[in-house]
Each structure stands twice: as structure tokens, then as C-alpha cells.
Design brief:
The chain has 158 residues and is mainly beta. It folds into two domains: 29-83; 84-158, no CATH class. 10% of the residues lie in helices and 56% in strands. It has one helix at residues 2-17; strands at residues 31-35, 42-50, 53-60, 65-72, 75-81, 95-114, 119-136, 142-148, 151-157. It has a nine-stranded antiparallel beta sheet with strand order 1-2-3-4-5-6-7-8-9, with no helix packed on it. The longest helix has 16 residues, at 2-17.
Length: 158
């Protein structure tokens, strides 16, 4: 008798209290469109929120999400990366980012002396402007990956 009552109570609680938990994200989209990409290894789906906002989700062939990209007025403003970065595998996943313009000093090499047997170059530092993905790290240090002529490097924003 006690077992029947216990099972009935458990079953009642499972039915009554089973529900979809809202985590605060908008799930009412204006339109959902699958995009044909040139690369057959990936597929993209646009979740259109309104006329100027959309979220593009990129999946691989196994339907595992790779990236979520947020566009406002067709300009990438933020997103989340779910893949392991091949050049920096120690970075945590998922990584959230915002797009930001960064000034970085870069070296341009100019020919200052030229002879038949020697070419001498002198680096000249210039400020360049880059539009980069600014990632949030766990230590409240924001960093970005910049691909220059000397390869990809991680820089921390002050």
C-alpha cells in the first residue's frame, strides 16, 4: 500500500512539475532560414529576430554547433565559438567574443641601404587598426588573436 502511494506521488510530481524551463533567450524568431554555403563541410542557419538583428549558427557535418554569430544591420557584433582553436588548443571552449577595433603597432621594413652585395632594412613602427574578436577570459583579461606576417599571436587588451 505504501509503495502504491509513493509511486503515485512520484508520478504525480513528475507530471505536474515537468515543464520547459525558460532560460531567458528569445525563442520566438521572425524567420528561420538555412543558408547554402560554398563549403560543403559546414551548414549555416539564420535565426532572424527582427529586421536588423539575426543570429547565425554554423554546424559541421555531424550537426555539432561550431559558432553562433550575432549580426546587427548585417555587421558582426558578437558571438560564441564552440570549437577548439587549432593554433591555440589551450583556450577554453566555448569562448564568447565581441567585435572591437584595436590599434596595434606593427613594423614595416624599409630599404635604407642597397649595394650590390647587401640590402639593409630598418623597421619602422606604425599604428595599424584591426577589427578583431575580443574574447573574455576567466581572469577578466580580455584578449584577441592577431594574425600578422609573423604568424598568429595572442595579445591582451589593457
Amino acid at each position: 500500500m505504501i509503495r502504491i502511494v509513493t509511486c503515485s506521488i512520484v508520478l504525480l510530481f513528475q507530471i505536474v512539475f515537468s515543464q520547459h524551463y525558460d532560460i531567458g533567450y528569445n525563442t520566438h524568431y521572425k524567420q528561420i532560414v538555412e543558408i547554402q554555403l560554398d563549403d560543403k563541410n559546414f551548414k549555416a542557419v539564420d535565426f532572424i529576430i527582427d529586421d536588423n538583428k539575426k543570429v547565425t549558427k554554423i554546424f559541421n557535418l555531424q550537426n555539432t554547433i561550431i559558432e553562433e554569430l550575432v549580426f546587427v544591420d548585417d555587421i558582426l557584433v558578437s558571438g560564441v565559438e564552440y570549437f577548439t582553436n587549432p593554433k591555440f588548443p589551450f583556450l577554453k571552449t566555448p569562448r564568447s567574443f565581441i567585435m572591437q577595433t584595436i590599434e596595434q603597432e606593427v613594423a614595416n621594413y624599409y630599404n635604407i641601404q642597397f649595394t650590390s652585395s647587401l640590402i639593409k632594412y630598418l623597421p619602422k613602427l606604425k599604428k595599424a587598426v584591426f577589427n578583431v574578436r575580443l574574447y573574455n577570459s576567466t581572469k577578466n583579461n580580455n584578449f584577441y588573436i592577431l594574425n600578422t606576417g609573423h604568424g598568429s599571436k595572442i595579445y591582451y587588451k589593457e
